Amino acid sequence: MSLRFVPPVHRATHRIGLYLANLGAFGLSQGEAHILAHLATCSPASISQLHRRLAHKRSTLTSILDRLVGRKLVTREVGATDRRTFIVTPTAKGRVVARRVHRHLAGLERAVARRVSAGDRAVFLKVLAVVEEEARCRTRT
Q1: What global pTM score does this model have?
Q2: pLDDT tens digits, residue range 83-118?
Q3: How far apart are CA 15 and CA 32, in angstroms?
Q4: What share of the chain has pLDDT > 70, as a percent?
Q5: Which of 66, 87, 91, 64 minimizes the C-alpha distance to 76?
Q6: Where are the alpha helices (DSSP H) in 24-117?
Q7: With 80 as the cut, is the pLDDT of residue 140 above it?
Q8: Domains recognised in the chain with CATH numbers
Q9: Do 45 and 38 contact (CB within 8 A), yes or no?
Q10: Measured between alpha carbons, how far is 134 from 17 in angstroms, rounded to an integer?
Q11: In sequence order, what are the residues at sequence separation of 6 or more whose Cβ sits closer than 8 angstroms to the Cβ of residue 11?
Q12: Of 25, 104, 108, 127, which has the fewest beta carbons less than 10 angstroms from its beta carbon?
């Protein structure tokens, strides 16, 4: 049986990474860009929220956040109400970059939405959710 779902998902993910690289001046990795895009609309966010949203391994998420902190794009502080939680907040510079990344990705989404029907989008999202769930169920971490 040839693979029908995974290669197109992988290819599309790679193309999105190349699309994000068009932002060039920021020098963000794909992981950094996705975290900032999320923070553009959902900030501040706990590390647990970011983990649920992006599904990175915790060590990978920590590495990405370390780089963003080092570049002074986000801060990571102990939660005020739960000291076991870390809260990630974009800095002033980070908010500018986050909005730019979010606008860039929103432009891609608008272009895609113009080319497919609402029904197509619903089916696509359903298939992606099933792919993600099946992969999650088969992953130990």
Answers
A1: 0.89
A2: 788 999 999 999 999 999 999 999 999 999 999 999
A3: 16
A4: 99
A5: 87
A6: 30-41, 47-54, 58-70, 92-115
A7: no
A8: 26-136 (1.10.10.10)
A9: yes
A10: 23
A11: none
A12: 25
Q: Are 62 and 32 in contact (CB under 8 A)?
A: no
Distance of alpha carbon 8 from alpha carbon 6, whole angstroms:
6
Residue type at 81?
A: T
Cβ partners under 8 Å of residue 141, min gap 6 = 57
Report the b/e string of 76-110 with b at 16+ CB within 10 A.
Answer: eeeeeeeeeebbbebbeebbebbbbbbebbeeeee
Confidence of residue 25 (pLDDT cuts 50, 70, 90): low
CB atoms near residue 130 (< 10 Å): 11
- For the chain, the residue count is 141
Burial of 52 from C-beta contacts in 10 A (0-12 / 13-18 / 19+):
exposed
Angle between helix 118-137 and 6-21 (nearest 10): 110
